[in-house]
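User: Transcriptional regulatory protein QseB, Usitatibacter rugosus:
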Amino acid sequence: MHVLIVEDDPILAGGITEKLRREGYVADSVTSAEQADTALRVSQIDLVILDIGLPGVDGFSWLRKMRANGGQQSVLVLTARNDVSDRVQGLTLGADDYLPKPYATEELLARVYALARRGRALKSRIIEHGPLTIDLDRKRAMLSGKPLDLPQREHAILEYLFSNVEAIVGKDKIAGAVASWNEEISANAIEVHMSRLRSKLEDSGIKIRTIRGLGYLVEAWKDA
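Assistant: Predicted structure for Transcriptional regulatory protein QseB:
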């Protein structure tokens, strides 16, 4: 899951980003509404943690515009404003949750986790593909009943591939789904990760095809 923190305090933003990464999320931070627009254009963002008191275009205005443009990302509003009218305005504009400052880190993480689950409510949170089981919430994978030990980046690629079974996914799409928005992952790096994943799955009967010039395709599982 890719989380974008929109917060003009770089120390606070950096702290949230680091905590989320430790929990296994892909997380990035920006300091303005304009940078948030760029991040949404270039990356597949699932959840936005939005501070209302941004310089220039404030958080409420950005949220209104984002929803008007069809943005479907979950939004958790962070703000020092604690008036009921502000909460109502944020929720009316399309925020999914509201957390006033100051807040406990544990509560922030719990709300992020809850929004992650809610965002996946329209699709199963457990992916089963033959002997492979992926728990999207707990970020765990099992192969033939045994834990599949993967580095964070490879696990993110695994989730993306098996969320798009029988669809061709290009290296650029994979990079956009698993990388930080201001981070570049080369095609060669994707190939290395794919080689390692295939090696770990090779005895399972799971097939990941290379479609020359286009990307990769996970074949539908067929019981023997």
